[in-house]
Amino acid sequence: MALTLAEKILKNHIVDGELVKGTEIGLKIDQTLTQDATGTMAYIEFEAMGIDQVRTERSVAYIDHNTLQSGFENADDHRFIASCAKKHGIYYSRPGNGICHQVHLERFGVPGKTLIGSDSHTPTGGGIGMLAIGAGGLDVAVAMGGGAYYITCPKIVNVELTGKLQPWVAAKDMILTLLKIMSVKGGVGKIIEYTGEGVKTLSVPERATITNMGAELGATTSIFPSDENTLAFLKAQGREEVYTPLAADEGAVYDEYIRINLSELEPMAACPHSPDNVKSIKEIGQMKIDQVCIGSCTNSSLMDMLKVAYILDGKTVHPDVSLAVSPGSKQVLGMMAENGALSKIIAAGARVLESACGPCIGMGQSPNSKGISLRTFNRNFEGRSGTKDGQIYLVSPEVAAASAVAGYLCDPRELGNMPEFVMPETFTVNDNMITLPAPADCAKDVEILRGPNIGEYPRTEPLTDTIAADCSLKVGDNITTDHIMPAGAKILPLRSNIPAISKHCFAVCDEKFPERALSLGRSIIVGGTNYGQGSSREHAALAPLYLGVKAVIVKSFARIHRQNLINAGILPLEFVNEADYETIEQGDSLVIEGLLENIGDGEITVKNTTRGTSFAVKCELSARMKDIILCGGLLEYTRNNLK
Ligand code: MIC
Ligand code: SF4
Fold first, then answer.
1. Range 156-175 average pLDDT
2. Are strands 467-474 and 589-592 parallel, antiparallel or unpaired?
3. pLDDT for the residue 77
4. Does ligand 1 lie within 6 Å of residue 45's CB atom?
5. Is residue 440 situated within a structural domain?
6. Which among 208, 230, 264 is the end of a domain?
7. Quick one: residue 423, left, alpha or beta (phi over 0 = left, psi -120 to 50 = alpha)?
8. pLDDT of 242-259, one tens digit each?
9. What is the SS3 assignment for 111?
10. Confidence band of 463 (pLDDT split at 50, 70, 90)
11. At 363, is the secondary structure helix, strand, or coil?
């Protein structure tokens, strides 16, 4: 039977279940990555599992998120992760070496392999034909220990690309266009697979921009074939030996088809506060801007930076605009220094930042009040920039640089002819910021360096047959993990300390929530559709767990967050009739009975004793997930199964 590329890789890695869409499958994971904001928890969890050495082909720990060291916390976390990496057989990418996804693509990714990462943008690896999936820290810890990673066998959407991007129109405009078509929930339960004549017109960095932002569609992952462009990229990285050509079989059948003609695309922007609120630059018009930020794992490759340098060359950033540039990796920054691009960017007045996530995760560069900020990033959720009323627009590097000079949102096609930007035949390779782990026979002597801010995994309990608790919070549709567990420079240093970070849970929606939940002891959250979209941060489940949340009842969930709730032993319940959402008010007392018998496939009745009403919810779980929930979460489940 003719297979799609994603199906081929799934088939090569399936260790549990069968390739039947909608059923749960377990995959063998070849590579893992962690970053520092999710990494400390992942290593605390790995330690709790009691495994000495990772059992993957390659596991890498990156430091890229929490690089602003305004207290001891982040530096302690970096030291902790470095020592765990050394002890357990993990490569360690030091702070300054770059953003995990950019560096992983450059130095470690292998076409046809599986990768899971404790970061939702792990699908960036799909740019070189990897099956790369974002997951919670605990799932990554289990995979590091050699355990399978479980997903619902996804539908496969074929995006057929034809034509070629016109001058000054970018890969970013393609993925923004797809977001406009599919929305932030259009990809849930799906893999997006790119095919067609247009594919070969896109370089690996361009493909990686597209697979990176596939995360915003809610997709399980996105993937491009591995072809001569992949070979050229790997060769330029001195890694051609890992290349294998990969593509879908002729006649492969997909679940959905979308066609995009690259030649017809134009510069686009995602308007506040959602990546799918996409309009063309023309439609938005000449809007005055306050800030421009160029970088992030979506758009910080050397190619992106060369374009920015070309646009800024000989110009000055507009006096009313602050321009920040963060190249994606030490390799990118180093090569920009070598080829003169960096000095052009500096001369124009850009504020050059270290190679890290930086402003993308609110680590500095928050815009002014009501400030309009153009960013080449992937998320513009409310408050994520660190300024509550900041107005964030997501654009291509071309739009960003041209607008930084103009002082208003402008179409880069106004710049006239575009020179051909070519990827260098060789990248400058210097892996001196990647520390190798200790040899396995010396590993037991490596001491784990734990700072005082590094806590423990919160206590979990086995599921009880009845949950009687009040609704401590009712929220609407498309709640992001940035609402549930905000990030930013002030809160991120608390990622290793669940009691402390829990004080900020839902701060964007309701600052009183943590206090209220704690005083209730146990409670239930009610939400709308696509609840938990965005980041993979398991803190969005661990903080509610610590605050006593026993169940979350919503219209629908985002994939990674639902899994994180299950992993934390919190019941993910969905309304059978969405209209019942309207019958509940915050503060209502709810009683859920018969759980032990009915979770898995049955309908469960929830009584609202405040209003004297009742409604049905469902909790579809595979047998394995049911066992996880019954024993109080994945950590307990893994411990039990290791015995
Ligand atoms: C993000 O972009 O939201 C993050 C920060 O990279 C997260 C991970 C985290 O919260 O640490 C993600 O995308 O998973
Ligand atoms: Fe870092 Fe932003 Fe990418 Fe998340 S989206 S990994 S914060 S650069």
1. 98
2. antiparallel
3. 98
4. no
5. no
6. 264
7. beta
8. 999 999 999 999 999 999
9. coil
10. very high
11. coil
- Cβ of 307 below 6 Å from ligand 1: no
Q: What is the CA radius of gyration of the chain?
A: 23
Select from 395, 410, 425 the last residue of a domain.
410
Q: Is the pLDDT of residue 203 over 80?
A: yes
How many folded domains does the chain comprise? 3
Query: 119, 482, 495: which to mutate for ligand 1, most atoms within 8 A of CB?
Result: 119
Lookup result for tokens 């297979």: 3
Quote the domain boundaries for residue 386: 268-410
333 CA from centroid of ligand 2 (Å): 17
Q: What is the pLDDT of residues 92-130, one digit of tens each?
A: 999 999 999 999 999 999 999 999 999 999 999 999 999
Which pair of structure tokens corresponds to residue 109?
């990714």
Q: What is the pLDDT of residue 639?
A: 83
Catalytic residue positions, numbered? 64-65, 119, 379, 535, 537
Would you say residue 93 lies in a domain?
Answer: yes
| 328-76-79 Cα angle (round to 5) | 70
Ligand 2 pocket by Cβ (under 6 Å) = 65, 99, 119, 121, 296-297, 357, 360-361, 377-378
CB atoms within 10 A of CB 71: 10
Ligand 1 atom at minimal distance to the Cα of residue 492: 11
Instruction: Indicate if ligand 1 lies below 6 Å from the C-beta of 504.
Output: no
The per-residue pLDDT for 642 is: 66
